[in-house]
């Protein structure tokens, strides 16, 4: 598979996240490729269940609109790394740490090389793969595999979490514009996230600045449920959106 083709497909998904319908001809002009080449990209994305195509237009798939993890990891990488470097400061050696599925929490993984003897709990297959080279215990929460997010979820995952006491939980969000707390696009993840909050001593929301302008479908908590929110430099209006949190940490 050509890396350029896959990169272009990821860019198409990013554009559809901002605008639910786009003209195929205009997309071809933007990427400076033929409409035939672009239609091949759209065919692949349609086969993956990520878009719908009609005459002359491509549409964001209705329903679960979360971008695949492969797309997310390429977004705002520098901002996420700044957050990750700050987040690891709140991890104590030999503690139990939960990492939510998501690209921001995935960014934290490399900094666990600075820590000793942690037990890392996660439902994210991608995070587990990244942790294998490090000297920490890994507890993969079992459950139904959600392929787009490369994570487990559902009733089995929820039952597993009931048996784990977490010292520090790092949780992400799909956005919170016009909301009183973080949201997710996945209904199945809703109860899992809420159980993590219930099982954790220290709860930390990690979110890059773009999440102030996006919103998922399902709110799963309030900002006041978190001990800390770690984000990038924000203006007073954005700070007011999350000021019910106990502490706002700027990375």
Automatic annotation (TrEMBL):
Entries under SMART domains matching the protein: DeoRC (SM01134), HTH_DEOR (SM00420)
All residue ranges annotated as the HTH deoR-type domain in the record: 5-60
What keywords are annotated for this sequence in UniProt?
DNA-binding, Transcription, Transcription regulation
What domain of life?
Answer: Bacteria
Pfam families named in the record: DeoRC, HTH_DeoR
Q: Does the record bear Nucleus in its keywords? A: no
Iron-sulfur among the record's keywords? no
What's the name of the protein? Answer: DeoR family transcriptional regulator
Species of the source:
Faecalicoccus pleomorphus
> Which gene underlies this protein?
glpR_1
